[in-house]
Design a protein that fits this description.
The complex is a heterodimer. Chain A is mostly beta strands. Chain A is built from no helices and eleven strands. Chain A has strands spanning 3-7, 11-12, 18-25, 34-41, 48-54, 59-61, 69-74, 79-84, 93-101, 105-109, 113-117. In chain A, the strands form two sheets. In chain A, strands 2, 4, 5, 6, 9, 10 and 11 form a seven-stranded mixed beta sheet that branches. Chain A has a four-stranded antiparallel beta sheet with strand order 1-3-8-7, with no helix packed on it. In chain A, strand 4 and strand 5 form a beta hairpin. Chain B is an all-beta fold. Chain B is built from no helices and nine strands. In chain B, a hairpin with a 6-residue loop joins strand 3 (36-40) and strand 4 (47-50). Chain B is globular and about 40 Å long. The termini of chain B are far apart. Classes of the chains: A mainly beta, B mainly beta. Chain A binds chain B through residues 39, 46-49, 52, 60-63, 96, 101, 104-107, 109-112, and chain B through 2, 34, 36, 38, 44-48, 51-52, 57, 89, 91, 93, 97-105.
């Protein structure tokens, strides 16, 4: 069964860059059937789609975050990454990575990692 | 601010049937885009519950069912069990926003 695991700093200072990596195991990131995405959830609030990227490099971002977000895929390491910059306290959230099937639904999720933006 | 609206909470007794609505518009559900549902148990990541409006992934009990009509969709849980207490989210695609959108979320209490 496919597994995804987020990793990265749990604390980021305001105006700096949030960087997270999602390691994919028990499956390959190189498939045209899937894209690889990020979703976040502020404490006590709902889910927000951040963006996704296919293994071939086509990226799509939430318009409200587009100017600050970059998602990249590293097929040699079987992992993908998120960069968000600059950050503010409003970016404090649990960040999830997930596999998006057929540019549609999210069928596998990581366990999530809490990122707090604070000085 | 989500473009898919769900009731904040629904509740039911064990064994009862509850439904959760997901109301969209002509740029998402009404445009023909599929609706998917996720279950988020307390302190855990969301889990795919229904895909493509009314399909269950392997392992999801048939007590869960989905439907879609017009600009809305619904998730029904029959034979409600204590383990169904969770937050539920619908998800679709919005052509006006050019992105994927989630519903506001519904807390189910048993």
């Amino acid at each position: 069964q496919l597994q995804l695991q987020e990793s990265g700093p749990g604390l980021v200072r305001p105006s700096e860059t949030l960087s997270l990596t999602c390691i994919v195991s028990r499956g390959s990131i190189s498939s045209s059937r899937y894209s690889w995405g990020w979703i976040r959830q502020p404490p006590g609030k709902g889910l927000e789609w951040i963006g996704n990227m296919s293994y071939s490099g086509s990226a799509y971002y939430n318009p409200s975050l587009k100017s600050r977000v970059t998602i990249s895929v590293n097929t040699s390491k079987n992992q993908f990454s998120l960069r968000l910059s600059p950050v503010t306290a409003a970016d404090t959230a649990v960040y999830y990575c997930a596999r998006q099937r057929n540019e549609d639904y999210l069928d596998y999720w990581g366990q999530g990692t809490l990122v707090t933006v604070s000085s | 601010q989500s473009v898919l609206t769900q009731p904040p909470s629904v509740s039911g007794a064990p064994g009862q049937r509850v439904t959760i609505s997901c109301t969209g518009s002509s740029s998402n559900i009404g445009a023909g885009y599929d609706v998917h549902w996720y279950q988020q148990l307390p302190g855990t990541a969301p889990k795919l519950l229904i895909f493509g409006n009314n399909n269950r992934p392997s392992g999801v009990p048939d007590r869960f069912s989905g439907s879609k009509s017009g600009t809305s969709a619904s998730l029904a849980i029959s034979g409600l069990q204590a383990e169904d207490e969770a937050d539920y989210y619908c998800q679709s695609y919005d052509s006006r926003l050019s992105g994927y959108v989630f519903g506001t979320g519904t807390k189910v209490t048993v």
